[in-house]
Amino acid sequence: MFFNFIFLIFLFFSNVLSALEFKPEKNSIEVELIPENGILKKGDEYFFGIKFKLENGWKTYWKNPGDAGEPLRVNWEDETNKSKLELLFPFPEEFVEKEVTTIGYDDELVFPVKITNNNFQKINEIVILDYLLCREVCIPFSEKKKINLDFSQVVHSDSFYRSLKMVPKKSNNYFKVNVRGTASDHLTVEIKKSNKKYKLFAFSEETEAKVVNNRSDSKFEIYLDEKLNQLSKPIHISISDGERYEEISLKLNELTKTQNLLMFVFFAILGGFILNLMPCVLPVLSLKLYSFSSISSKTSNQIKMNCLWIIFGIIVSFLILAFSIMILKYLGQTVGWGFQFQNQYFLYFMTFIILIFSLNLLGFFEIILPNKFQNMISNLTMRNSEAGNFLSGMFATLLATPCSAPFLGTAVGFSMLASNSIIFLIFLSISIGFCMPYLLFLLFPRIVNIIPKSGKWTISFRYFLGILLFLSSVWLMMLSGLNNIIIFLVSSVVVIISNIKNRILLSKLFVGVFFVLSTIYFLKYENFNQDPVKWSDFNKDTLEKLIIENNIILVDVTADWCVTCKVNKFTTLDSKKLTDFIKKNQIITIRADWTKKNEEILNYIKEFDRFGIPVNIIYGPNHKNGILLPEILTSDIVINKLNKVGINEYQRESTISSN
Q1: By the 8 A CB rule, do 568 and 633 touch?
Q2: Which of 254, 270, 286 is the endpoint of a domain?
Q3: Would you say residue 380 lies in a domain?
């Protein structure tokens, strides 16, 4: 396809001087609106038509023009007109010239345009038609035409109704198809019980789609320029047997799921494992390491049993979370991954728990519980040590589940759109990934011998774990909305007292680093909180208006508790390369803050089959339905997608308007 594109560019420039010679002759091409006065009607729907008369080899194009071309576009000149226009495309033909395949029309045809009647009796307005006509060369046209519609006067047009009949009907169950995702960017469509010769064309709002039938009358291959898992909108296929015309929308999450399910299970396991490495789960990982050092002197069987019960606690906790989501789903509630962090009481609870444990490790005190509760726990753990390990596994899950990690949002989003059995399977897979460190010790218990025996190093190690837990509690304090001055004062007291109680080199280093970084933060507070580009607050109505006005828009759905979002912001969204590109091309940036529960934002990301963040979407004249970006961003990925949605066209139009 790339070489075909280069060939077309060469062909265009080599013939640009002779383009005037190939201008459509007078009376050889006519474009008119029908009816001249009145309205066309089918059932309860109203229409007018755009009639083309093409002669001498001239062609115009379908909504997916193929290797070259541009489809017809129709819009009101007055953008405030509340009557919506929906352009319908009759079933097209395929043309092959010099190894270049295009999809479109020749001869005479009518494009039906459906119009909503907002209680108007008459509409006298100007419409703008943008279209491309090609023969040896291609000539773009943009013209304004006056339309006079009278909804009280229904007229008849044979040519209009012939074309309307050829518009593929949506999901009429004429044709039974089997669709398989045979590769990451490749679909196979097979028409069942076929005894005729079929034609099939594909269209996607997000990517290029090329159809190859491999000399088969009923089996077609659809090749895409994007990976299937990067697409959020359906792929539409139009099928005809010469008599009937149907459009079938292929919802990617409803395709045959053998391959897809295995892929999402893999994502879930990988995301669960990465949870162990995310900053918000460092306290969990630290507690694991500390617990391993404490069991290094035990036998292999004891190590295996400890690990087995911790794994059991983790898996049970994740399954409880899965069943909770199933119940909420049954009750009509929708939740996303990390929804716990949107609850203020959950933040207070987690802050208190982690702070208490960190102070304990820093030597402030041993945890003191009421005698009755302390005796109950003591008896339980002494009689059956498995219970203590099971509870530690559940506690690890409690700390880990609010964290967002790469691949996790994709896997959870897939499960939210599927059956309860898929939810169960995905959350079980996440728990298995999260258990990986313990599974390693379960299968190879002798690894614990690598950990040094108890000694002076354990004092520093204990202090290090306490610092990690304390920093996590500080992060939670910030999320819960506590004043920065209060957080600084509490932190200063903890750091100073812990240094007095732990007279070791590590505590002195931490005191110095803490106060230096705190001083820099408060002196440069405004710089820390200032974005290189201006981000507007998310509003769905405002977004839709900007899309209609053909703006280039970048939407960032983020939250303070989303670590992956912060990484994307630091490495990509705030990078000089991307921010300079945004400023140069006048791209509108919108940020949706999902730190606290917001149904409008949740409903917005659900449109893209996502239930977790980060979510980044780009809009432009060529992709008004938006392109969903991957979870992990780079500047090149974002810039390439911005170019794809219409940066070059936008710049050209801006230049023309300025002149």
Answers
A1: yes
A2: 254
A3: no
Distance CA(469)–CA(463), nearest Å, equals 10
d(CA 295, CA 305): 11
Q: Is residue 377 part of a domain?
A: no
**pLDDT computed for residue 11 by the predictor:** 43
CATH number of the domain that residue 184 is part of: 2.60.40.10
Compute the distance between CA of residue 122 and CA of residue 488 in angstroms, rounded to an integer: 68
Query: With the C-alpha atoms ordered 115, 116, 120, 121, is the resulting torsion angle positive or negative?
Result: positive
Predicted structure pTM score: 0.54
| Partners of 619 in the β-ladder | 553
Name the domain boundary from 530, 558, 588.
530
Q: Supply the Cα-derived Rg of the chain in whole angstroms.
A: 31
Rounded to an integer, what distance in angstroms lies between the CA atom of residue 114 and that of residue 152? 16
- Tell me, yes or no, whether 378 lies in a domain: no
> Between the CA of residue 384 and those of 288, 301, 311, 435, 441, what are the distances in Å?
20, 15, 16, 22, 21
Instruction: Please check whether residues 142 and 53 belong to one and the same domain.
Output: yes
pLDDT of the residue at 458: 73
**For residue 60, what pLDDT band results from cuts at 50, 70 and 90?**
very high
Cis peptide leading into residue 630 (ω within 30°) = no
Neighbours of 265 (CB within 10 A): 20
User: What is the SS3 assignment for 19-64?
Assistant: HHHHCCCCCCEEEEEECCCEEEEECCEEEEEEEEEECCCCEEEEEE
Do 78 and 119 lie in a common domain? Answer: yes
pLDDT digits (tens, 9 = 90+) for 337-351: 666 677 778 788 888
- Split into its structural domains, the chain has a count of 5
Work out the angle at residue 514's Cα, subtended by the Cα atoms of residues 513 and 519, and round it to the nearest 5 degrees.
100
Q: Are residues 328 and 413 in the same domain?
A: yes
Residues 71 and 189 in one domain: no
H or E element, residue 113: strand 108-115
Instruction: Tell me: pLDDT of 556 over 90.
Output: yes
> Using CA atoms, how far apart are residues 425 and 264, in angstroms rounded to an integer?
10
**Are 99 and 224 in a shared domain?**
no
Distances (CA, A) of 560 to 397, 402, 439, 528, 655: 20, 12, 32, 14, 39
Residue 308 resides in a domain: yes
For the chain, the average pLDDT equals 78
Average pLDDT estimate for 113-132? 86
Domain that holds residue 127: 2-167
302 and 421 fall within a common domain:
yes
One domain for residues 57 and 146: yes
357 and 465 belong to one structural domain? yes
CB under 8 Å to 606, separation ≥6 — which residues?
Answer: 334
What's the CA gap between 540 and 604, in Å, rounded? Answer: 8
Q: What is the pLDDT of residues 93-112, one digit of tens each?
A: 999 887 788 999 998 999 99
